[in-house]
């Protein structure tokens, strides 16, 4: 039993099995946003590691191939952007202005709320990468000295919020244009929100993917500058 | 008709850009990794404060806009990676669950910062872009 649990492939097999199971569960229950497969998988894996007393470092070594794939996955984010390239170029000024204003508002609210409530500087640093999609948040987080694991959870929380409350909130403020709805979800809710937008319509999904990537590019440049004030 | 075995599907070059005998997924993965490493080298040379993978993204964007066939060659690995991007977040997420105490201690400011910036960003982006697009040529 010990040989099985501590075999080099155990953590990876556990993660893949939990992910496939969580995906199947999600599909059968009608895709509730709160049971996003990634969240269920994380909880299942964490519980199993705890029960079997497997140290996190050992688990991390077992799943290093997943960590390694984050790089090529980030490069691949260019693909959805290329697909919606023509529509974006036609409205490039509107897109750029929205991107800059939204980024400024989002960072100001994040930093403002934390500073107003007296949070320590390292917590501000950790919360900053939340504004970008996770693969980029991980690398940017490392660059600016954030606690990357916590940053990932905050990004995931935003994603789940986007998938659940996002469409509702956009209805309340009467944003009906599918392009604007998709873009807003992509900027605010990243991958999880985008996957929901893609399921709804191609237009919203395309604009959502594009917004996610453009936002990531803009934040990659902007966040290290903002972070300098807190480190 | 009927008795002849089915001809090998399609031309020697598949729709994904790679010759039929090349394992397209592996070749596409190698291409994406190569772009990431190229980005890393460029970052090292220029001392840009960005991750190498993001520079790789920009290179793929630039070359792919000019040569669509180049971007298509990255798709056999790129599409499944993007579709299951969330699987790649599980390891750091599990690590974060082990740090729940920090999260709970700072729950109030974190909740305000995350929910506040999420809602503000969403509403501002949606309203602003809708207004701008209506005036633009696309509407």
Automatic annotation (TrEMBL), chain A:
Coiled coil: none annotated. Keywords: Hydrolase, Membrane, Transmembrane, Transmembrane helix. It is a multi-pass membrane protein. It is found in: Membrane. Its main location: membrane. GO terms for cellular component: membrane. InterPro entries: CidB/LrgB. It holds the Pfam family LrgB. GO terms for molecular function: hydrolase activity. The chain crosses the membrane at residues 6-22, 34-54, 60-82, 94-119, 150-170, 182-199, 205-227. PANTHER family: PLASTIDAL GLYCOLATE_GLYCERATE TRANSLOCATOR 1, CHLOROPLASTIC (PTHR30249:SF0), PUTATIVE SEROTONIN TRANSPORTER (PTHR30249). This is Putative effector of murein hydrolase. It comes from Kineococcus aurantiacus.
From TrEMBL, chain B:
Keywords: Cell membrane, Hydrolase, Membrane, Transmembrane, Transmembrane helix. It is a multi-pass membrane protein. The chain crosses the membrane at residues 20-42, 48-67, 110-129. The keyword Nucleotide-binding does not apply. It is found in: Cell membrane. GO terms for molecular function: hydrolase activity. One of its GO terms (cellular component) is plasma membrane. InterPro entries: LrgA/CidA. This is Putative effector of murein hydrolase LrgA (UPF0299 family).
């Amino acid at each position: 039993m010990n040989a099985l649990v501590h075999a080099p492939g155990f953590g990876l097999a556990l993660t893949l099995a939990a992910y496939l199971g969580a995906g199947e569960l999600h599909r059968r229950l009608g895709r509730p946003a709160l049971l996003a497969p990634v969240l269920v998988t994380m909880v299942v894996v964490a519980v199993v590691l705890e029960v079997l007393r497997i140290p996190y470092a050992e688990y991390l070594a077992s799943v290093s191939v997943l960590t390694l794939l984050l790089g090529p996955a980030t490069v691949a984010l260019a693909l959805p952007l290329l697909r919606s390239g023509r529509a974006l170029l036609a409205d490039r000024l509107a897109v750029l202005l929205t991107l800059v204003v939204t980024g400024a508002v989002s960072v100001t609210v994040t930093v403002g709320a934390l500073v107003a409530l007296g949070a320590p500087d390292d917590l501000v640093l950790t919360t900053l990468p939340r504004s970008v999609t996770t693969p980029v948040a991980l690398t940017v987080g490392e660059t600016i000295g954030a606690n990357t694991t916590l940053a990932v959870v905050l990004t995931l929380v935003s994603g789940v919020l986007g998938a659940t409350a996002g469409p509702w909130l956009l209805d309340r403020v009467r944003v009906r244009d599918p392009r604007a709805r998709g873009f807003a979800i992509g900027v605010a809710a990243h991958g999880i929100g985008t996957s929901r937008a893609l399921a709804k319509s191609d237009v919203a999904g395309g604009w959502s993917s594009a917004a996610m990537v453009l936002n990531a590019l803009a934040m990659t440049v902007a966040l290290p500058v903002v972070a300098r004030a807190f480190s | 008709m009927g008795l002849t075995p089915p001809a090998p599907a399609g031309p020697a070059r598949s729709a994904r850009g790679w010759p039929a005998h090349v394992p397209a997924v592996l070749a596409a993965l190698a291409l994406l990794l190569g772009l990431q490493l190229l980005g890393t080298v460029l970052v090292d040379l220029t001392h840009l404060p960005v991750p190498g993978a993001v520079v790789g993204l920009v290179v793929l964007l630039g070359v792919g806009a000019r040569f669509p066939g180049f971007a298509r060659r990255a798709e056999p690995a790129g599409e499944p990676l993007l579709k299951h991007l969330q699987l790649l977040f599980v390891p750091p997420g599990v690590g974060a669950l082990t740090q729940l105490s920090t999260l709970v201690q700072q729950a109030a400011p974190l909740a305000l910062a995350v929910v506040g910036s999420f809602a503000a960003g969403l509403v501002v982006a949606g309203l602003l872009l809708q207004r701008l697009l209506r005036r633009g040529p696309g509407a």
